[in-house]
Amino acid sequence: MPLLDVRDLTMHYVTKMGDVHAVDGVTFSLEHGEAIGLVGESGCGKTSIALTLLRLLPDNAKFLGGQALFDGVDLTRLPESEMRKIRWRGISMIFQAAMNSLNPVYRVGDQIIEAMQTHMSISYREARKRVAELFELVGLAPELMDRYPHEYSGGMKQRAVIAMALACDPKLIIADEPTTALDVIVQDRILRRIDEVRKTLNMAMMYISHDIAVIAEVSQRIGVMYAGHLVEFGDTVTLFGRPAHPYTIALMSAFPSLRGEKRKLRALPGEPPDLLRPPPGCRFHPRCPFATEICTTQAPPQDMIEPGHTVACWHPQVRRS
Ligand SMILES: Nc1ncnc2c1ncn2[C@@H]1O[C@H](COP(=O)(O)OP(=O)(O)OP(=O)(O)O)[C@@H](O)[C@H]1O
Ligand code: SF4
Ligand SMILES: [Mg+2]
């Protein structure tokens, strides 16, 4: 049984102008100890998926259906009291721009200790010891726990936020743009460190990023999102070697295809659709060179085109490696 099994997840935001179709029929899974990446342009619904799983959506969000089995338990239907036990201890999240949300008037270590004491029964002394261990794990000198956030560099803050996510020993960490604010070298170093920690602790990770180059190296499988839909999902080598969805291909085509080479998501011609009024059928059809009549009226299902490789497209571009 996978650690996380997401099926047909659908949620919209209700606004004065109508519903924003943020997440529509998203299906994927995550194995114990596995790292996956979710990529796509800004506004395609990545954070909304994470917030749906953790049930931290704002009041105007409307859950419309689907399920998310975490260790066999459907998160979408858990009472809030049970959900509280899952957050931090089962699944913890590194929020987008989390490093800027460290409280400036408290010592960094104390903020982590407080989070631990809120979610598990642990003495102050034990928690301090654990923070020291976690700091070493993420590459921070343990003495730094008695310093304030303004005494930290951006990279150090991000490491502290990762230590906080690890504090309650979760089975899964969702990391939303965990390194976006940092320079490329620091990003790379931190992601490698997270990856080492993940392997040591046999923890699962779900990375979320608009930049495929950043997460490809540390993700075993990648899901590509477009306008609230998961359009392609497969192992990282397959996705780079044989992308089949026209959107994934377009994103990657501007780059020479060296195996395993890093690539960035490129801005495509045309605008990403307005999720208040998404195009009917396949949401990519107004920008797709392969679109036919059916694409404009019927949404393609997520089909498996080879073992472990799914694509939501009426005309997948299946190519030999
Ligand atoms: N509270 C809200 N009310 C209405 N619309 C919202 C709300 N939150 C997000 N949206 C819209 O839902 C869509 C998905 O947003 P989401 O934040 O999940 O995207 P994202 O892929 O995480 O983007 P980014 O890469 O910029 O973080 C966007 O169109 C966004 O404008
Ligand atoms: S379903 Fe049609 S429009 Fe959508 S990506 Fe495939 S070919 Fe293009
Ligand atoms: Mg986001």
Task: Provide an overview of this structure.
With 321 residues, this protein is of the alpha/beta class. The chain has a domain at 4-90 and 168-276 and 299-312: Rossmann fold, CATH 3.40.50. The protein is 31% helix and 25% strand. It has 10 helices and 12 strands. It has helices spanning 46-54, 80-86, 108-119, 124-138, 154-166, 184-201, 212-216, 236-241, 246-253, 293-297; strands at 4-15, 18-30, 35-39, 61-70, 73-74, 91-94, 172-176, 204-209, 221-226, 229-235, 302-306, 309-312. It has an 8-stranded mixed beta sheet, with helices on both faces. A 4-stranded antiparallel beta sheet has the order 2-1-4-5, with helices on one face. Strand 1 (4-15) and strand 2 (18-30) form a beta hairpin. The longest helix is centred in the middle third of the chain and has 18 residues, at 184-201. The protein is globular and about 65 Å long. Bound molecules: adenosine-5'-triphosphate (ATP), iron/sulfur cluster and magnesium ion (MG). Adenosine-5'-triphosphate is lined by residues 13, 15, 20, 22, 40, 42-48, 58, 60, 96, 210, 275. Magnesium ion (MG) is lined by residues 46-47, 96, 176.
Summarize the structure.
The protein is 31% helix and 25% strand. It has 321 residues and is an alpha/beta fold.
What is the name of the CATH superfamily of the domain at 4-90 and 168-276 and 299-312? P-loop containing nucleotide triphosphate hydrolases
| Strand count | 12
Radius of gyration: 20 Å
Can you list the strand order of the major beta sheet?
Answer: 6-7-8-3-9-10-12-11
- Please state the second-level CATH architecture of the domain at 4-90 and 168-276 and 299-312: 3-Layer(aba) Sandwich
Kindly estimate the percentage of residues that lie in beta strands according to DSSP: 15-25%
Helicity range: 25-40%
